[in-house]
Specification:
The protein has 219 residues and is α/β, with parallel strands linked by helices. It is built from eleven helices and eight strands. Helix content is 52%, strand content 16%. The structure holds SN-glycerol-3-phosphate.
Length: 219
């Protein structure tokens, strides 16, 4: 599973990218608004830090406007993915951009049939929003499984990018369901490798070594 950071916070991205575990970044207008900075400038800095796909979301809702804004974004860096909403104009723009070799992330996906349409439009990524479905009592994970089934049935190459992730469980079950990517808020990203028994075990190892005078001479 590829792990993306779901944030536009450049400082946070810089810190996490040092681990070598960050495969890409997704942003959206709400995340961009939180920075209080120029969106294009933020994207330039993110693309310089993370070599993988960096999603930049258009603000236009019409085809022509989307294409104009996509042109601004694609000039930023080769690893920019244009994020468009799953609407008629969004899929028209997705088709035009993907036919031209541009990476497109189709976002705000809430049904498997929508995801099928995005794949037909040549989407590189599809972003089903797990958390927002869970928020209204639906099962976001069923959506991931259904998209996986449809994509495998017809050999669609679009990558399932599980989004709106709110917990470690979301990452676990999205991976089990066959999502290609999980885009994860920073606070959850760090929790992925945490387990209390790991911490306890390490503490015991170090205490036993200290008690017995076990050392490793490095010079
Ligand atoms: O990438 C989409 C994601 O940022 C949306 O998450 O928590 O606003 O549903 P959320």
């Amino acid at each position: 599973m590829k792990l993306f950071l779901d944030t536009a916070d450049v400082a946070e991205i810089r810190e996490y990218a040092k681990s070598g575990l960050v495969d890409g970044v997704t942003t959206n207008p709400s995340l961009a608004a939180k920075t209080g900075r120029d969106y294009v400038e933020v994207l330039k800095e993110i693309c310089a830090v993370v070599p993988g796909a960096v999603s930049a979301e258009v603000l236009a809702t019409d085809f022509d406007g989307m294409m104009k804004q996509a042109k601004v974004f694609t000039k930023i860096a080769r690893n920019i993915a244009i994020k468009v909403p799953l609407t008629w104009d969004g899929l028209k723009a997705c088709k035009a951009l993907s036919d031209d070799g541009t990476m497109v992330n189709v976002t705000l996906c809430f049904s498997a049939v929508q995801a099928m349409m995005a794949a037909k439009a040549g989407a590189h990524f599809i972003s089903p929003f797990i958390g927002r479905l869970d928020d209204i009592g639906e099962d976001g994970m069923t959506l991931i499984r259904d998209i996986r089934t449809i994509y495998d049935n017809y050999g669609f190459k679009t990558e399932i990018l599980a989004a709106s992730i709110r917990s470690v469980s979301h990452v676990l079950y999205a991976a089990l369901a066959g999502a290609d990517v999980g885009t994860i808020p920073g606070d959850i990203f760090k929790k992925l490798l945490s387990h209390p028994l790991t911490d306890k075990g390490l503490e015991t190892f170090l205490a036993d070594a200290k008690k017995a005078g076990v050392t490793i001479k490095t010079e």
